């Protein structure tokens, strides 16, 4: 997965045989505006008429330029809604466990976190089994909205075994890495996880928090994370905007 953090010079689509001078002018002008972040990632571009006037081309040339920029992954169209700036993305590298904060930092982005809820409750039956604890054991549930440069991309729910993570009950988790806080305050070092991803539609709360229409495609990642002693530490459920997340995997074919 790639991000669209502004490069030193515009990464414009290569002109095609059908891309005339006006289309090339529009590509360059729009590329420069995107590089300067004239519009925030994930935001809607102005209407075609206003945009064509701004870059000084016809609406026909503008549409061709937008199509080229869409092929480069810099903008995308939504039927009946218009054109949108591509969202900076989180990419899980193959077979490597990284925190959201680490992934953002590696791409030159700032990871943000806004705490929605934090409370202690009894673990459910399935949670108890996955965390290897007795049914109804107390767990700490933390729900946050994670963002990239203040653009919300993920609703993150974490369930931790309370007896091992009491130090997190009163910690300010605003814009902080949960993995880092676990290690620094509770002496729990996250080492590996089992992870699954599935597609879904954004529910009401998720849609509002991620600023997308109800039912918009989202990716749901669920994990069980283990510490240095191979003991389950937490259960995670992250709901990502579909345009802001990609999972990479390395696959091997059996020799027989």
Count of structural domains: 2
User: Architecture of the largest domain, CATH level 2?
Assistant: 3-Layer(aba) Sandwich
CATH homologous superfamily placement of the largest domain: Chorismate lyase-like
Q: What is Rg?
A: 22 Å
The SSE string, one letter per element, is: HHHEEEHEHEEHEHEEE
Major sheet details:
6 strands, antiparallel
Global geometry? elongated
Name the poorly predicted regions: 1-17
- Helix proportion range: 25-40%
Beta-strand portion reads: 25-35%
CATH overall fold name of the largest domain: Chorismate lyase
- CATH class (first level) name of the largest domain: Alpha Beta
Terminal-residue CA separation: 32 Å
Helix/sheet category: alpha+beta
Q: Give the strand line-up of the largest sheet.
A: 4-5-6-9-8-7
Count of separate DSSP helical elements: 7
- Total beta strands: 10
The overall average pLDDT, rounded, is: 81
Model description:
By secondary structure, the protein is of the alpha+beta class. The protein folds into two domains: 21-85, Arc Repressor Mutant, subunit A (Orthogonal Bundle); 90-247, 3-Layer(aba) Sandwich (Chorismate lyase), CATH 3.40.1410.10. Helix content is 26%, strand content 32%. The chain has seven helices and ten strands. β8 and β9 form a beta hairpin. α1 crosses α3 (59-71) and α2 (48-55) crosses α3.
């Amino acid at each position: 997965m790639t991000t669209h953090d502004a490069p030193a010079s515009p990464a414009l689509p290569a002109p095609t045989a059908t891309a005339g001078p006006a289309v090339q002018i529009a590509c360059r002008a729009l590329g420069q505006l995107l590089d300067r972040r004239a519009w925030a990632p994930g935001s809607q571009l102005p209407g075609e008429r206003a945009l064509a006037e701004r870059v000084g081309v016809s609406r026909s040339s503008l549409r061709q330029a937008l199509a080229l920029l869409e092929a480069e992954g810099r903008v995308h169209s939504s039927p009946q809604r218009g054109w949108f700036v591509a969202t900076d993305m989180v990419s899980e590298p193959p077979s490597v466990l990284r925190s959201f904060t680490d992934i953002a930092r590696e791409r030159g982005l700032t990871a943000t976190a806004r705490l929605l809820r934090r409370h202690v409750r009894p673990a459910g039956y399935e949670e108890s089994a996955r965390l290897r604890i007795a049914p109804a054991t107390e767990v700490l549930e933390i729900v946050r909205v994670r963002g990239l440069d203040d653009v919300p991309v993920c609703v993150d729910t974490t369930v931790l075994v309370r007896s091992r993570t009491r130090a997190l009950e009163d910690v300010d988790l605003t814009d902080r890495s949960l993995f880092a806080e676990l290690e620094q305050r509770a002496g729990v070092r996250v080492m590996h996880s089992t992870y699954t991803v599935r597609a879904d539609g954004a529910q009401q709360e998720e849609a509002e928090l991620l600023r997308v229409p109800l039912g918009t495609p989202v990716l749901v990642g669920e994990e069980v994370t283990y510490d240095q002693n191979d003991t389950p530490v937490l259960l995670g459920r992250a709901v990502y905007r579909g345009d802001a997340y990609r999972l990479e995997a390395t696959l091997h074919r059996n020799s027989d």
